[in-house]
Amino acid sequence: MPFTFADPKAEARPLYVLESEEVALWAAQQDDATRRCVESNGFTGALGTTLMIPGPDGVPRAALAGYGTAAQRARQRFPLAGAATQLAPGTYRIALGVPDDMLANEALGWLLSGYGFSRYRDNTPKRAGLVAPDGIDAAQVEILARSEALTRDLVNTPANDMGPEALEDAAIKLGAEFGADVSVTRGDDLLAANFPLIHAVGRAAAQAPRLIDMRWGELGPKLTLVGKGVCFDTGGLNLKPVSSMGLMKKDMGGAANVLGLARMIMALGLQLRLRVLIPAVENSVSGNSFRPQDILRSRKGLTVEINNTDAEGRLVLADALALADEETPDLLISMATLTGAARVAVGPDLAPFFTDDDTLAIEIEQAGRRMADPVWRLPFWEPYEALIEPGIADLDNAPSGGMAGSITAALFLRRFVETSAKYAHFDIYAWQPTAAPGRSKGGFLQGPRAILGALPQALNL
After folding, report:
1. Which of 164, 170, 172, 371 is the most exposed place for a label (fewest CB within 10 A)?
2. Same CATH fold, 143-458 and 13-114?
3. Contact 318, 304 (CB under 8 A)
4. Catalytic residues
5. Is the pTM of this model over 0.90?
6. Using only C-alpha atoms, what is the Rg of the chain?
7. Which residues, 6+ apart, have CB-to-CB distance to 266 below 8 Å?
8. Rounded distance, CA 282 to CA 165, Å?
9. 353: exposed, middle or buried (Cβ count in 10 Å: 0-12, 13-18, 19+)
10. How far apart are CA 380 and CA 113, in angstroms?
C-alpha cells in the first residue's frame, strides 16, 4: 500500500541523511571504499540529492540523502521526501541525520511522495519503502497520509465524475467506513427544510443541489465542520472568463478538506461529537439561474442582495453555518476555496484563516508549524462591515471595488454564526500549482493537520 510503512522486520538498508557541512566529516569516518565512493561521485549533501553506497559485491548496502542547509530546508515542506523517489528500489531505515522533532513530518512526506492521481491512468510514482522511524506514532502518520490522499483524489476528480451526487457518495462511503450517520436533503426538499440559498445557487444545474449532514461520536465536545462543495463554478450568469474557469473542478476543495479532516478524526478515534455539513451544488447557467440584483432570504432570515452570481460560495455556506450554529457547537470551522483575494494576499502555499479567538488562533498557528501545514491569520476587520451592507438588503454578497475581498467574505460568513463558542473560517486554495517533494501537482490538503493539532487544546480533549 502506498501510504503504509514497510514491515519493521524487513531487511532495510541504512539511510544516512547528511547536511552539506556534515558530508566531509562523515566520509572521513568511513572505510576507504565508502570514502572513495562519496568523493568520486562528488556528493555534497545538497538538498534533494542521493547516493547509493555499494557493497563488495556491487549491490547497494547503504544510501546517503542530502539534507542541504537550514536555509534550503526552510523552502521545502518535506525536505527529505525528494529522496523517496530517487533511491534505488528497496526498503530503507533512517540511520542518522533527521532531528527528532522533524521525524514525523519527514516520514509523512515520504509516504505522500507515493501519491499519484490514478483514476484514469496509472500515475503512481515509484517510491522506496521506509521503515517507520523510532519515536514516531507510525499509525497516526499513516492515517494522515491516507486522509490527505482522500482529499487530493476528491479535488483532482473532474466535475463530470465529481458532481453533487458523487460528492454525496464519497461522504456516504467515508461515513460507512467509520460508522458515521449520513443524511442528505436534496432538490426542492431544501426549500421545505429552509435552505433557500443552497437551493438558489444549485437549482440551475443538471444534478440537484443538496446538503450533506454527517454525524459521528456520542461523547465529548461538539465540533462542526462546514465545507464548501461547489463541484463546478461557471460563475452563473456572471460567467467566468476562460482563464478563471479552468480550475473550477477544485471549487469543492473546502468539502474535500473537511472530509479529509473528518477521516483523520474518526480514524484516530478522538473522543468528540463530530458533525460535517457540506452544501453540494454546481453553479451553472439555465433558465432558472439566480440573477444579479435578486434579493434572497437566508435560513437565518437575513436578506442578501446578489451583486455577483460568481460569489456563490458564501451563499451556500451561509445556510449551512446557520444550521450548524443552531446546535451551539464548542468549535465551528468553515473551509472554502472562497476568494481570489486570499491568493493575492498569501499565495497558494499558505491557508489564511479568520477567528475572533486569540487563543484559538495561536493554537492553530503553532500546530500548523509543528505539523507542516502552515496557516496565516487574517483579521475580521470591523471597519469593513459597512462594505457588506448594501442598504436595500441586510447583506451584499459581492461588495463593489474589490478591496479586502477575503476579509469582506469572512465578515459575511460571520454574520451567520452567533452562538458557537469558537469559530474559525479558512479561505483555502486546495491546489498545488507545481510539484514539490511530497506534494504532487494538483489537489491539496490545506489546514486540516493544523486544525487537528489544535483540537486537544481548543476542545480540552
Report:
1. 172
2. no
3. yes
4. 240, 314
5. yes
6. 24
7. 177, 178, 180, 216, 217, 274
8. 10
9. buried
10. 36
Q: Which is nearest to 213 in space by CA: 281, 278, 266? A: 278
Is residue 425 within 8 Å of 379, Cβ to Cβ?
no
Beta-carbon contacts of 332 under 8 Å, excluding residues fewer than 6 positions away, are: 224, 226, 321, 324, 325, 417, 420, 422, 423, 424
CATH topology of domain 13-114: Leucine Aminopeptidase, subunit E; domain 1 (3.40.220)
User: Rounded distance, CA 443 to CA 150, Å?
Assistant: 10
Query: CATH topology for 143-458?
Result: Aminopeptidase (3.40.630)
Question: In this structure, what C-alpha cell is assigned to residue 322?
Answer: 446557520
Tell me the helix, strand and coil percentages in the chain, rounded to 5. 35, 20, 40
Q: Which residues contact 291 (CB under 8 A, 6 or more apart)?
A: 237, 306, 309
What is d(CA 445, CA 147) in angstroms, rounded to the nearest whole number? Answer: 9
Is the separation of the CB atoms in 62 and 30 below 8 Å? no
The bridge status of strand 351-355 relative to strand 375-377 is parallel
Cβ neighbours, 10 Å, residue 382:
8
Q: Which residue has the cell 449520513?
A: 182
Among candidate residues 249, 449, 427, 442, the one with its CA nearest the CA of residue 338: 427
- 10-residue stretch averages of pLDDT, the chain, 461 residues long: 89 97 96 96 96 93 97 96 95 96 97 97 94 97 98 98 98 98 98 98 98 98 98 98 95 98 98 98 98 98 98 98 98 98 96 98 98 98 96 95 94 97 98 96 98 98 93
Residue with cell 479567538: 357
SS3 68: strand
88 and 69 Cβ atoms separated by less than 8 Å: no
Report the distance separating Cα 203 and Cα 55, nearest Å. Answer: 67
Of 342, 328, 310, 312, nearest in space to 412 by CA = 312
Amino acid at 441: K
The closest of 105, 97, 94, 106 to 134, measured between CA atoms, is 94
Q: Identify which of 90, 252, 259, 96 has the alpha carbon closest to the alpha carbon of residue 173.
A: 259
Q: Residue holding cell 476543495?
A: 253
DSSP E strands in 160-272: the ranges are: 181-186, 210-216, 222-227, 229-233
* Per-domain boundaries in the chain: 13-114, 143-458
Instruction: Please state, as a whole number, how many other Cβ atoms lie within 10 Å of the Cβ of residue 422.
Output: 18
Residue 6 phi, psi (nearest 5): -70, 155
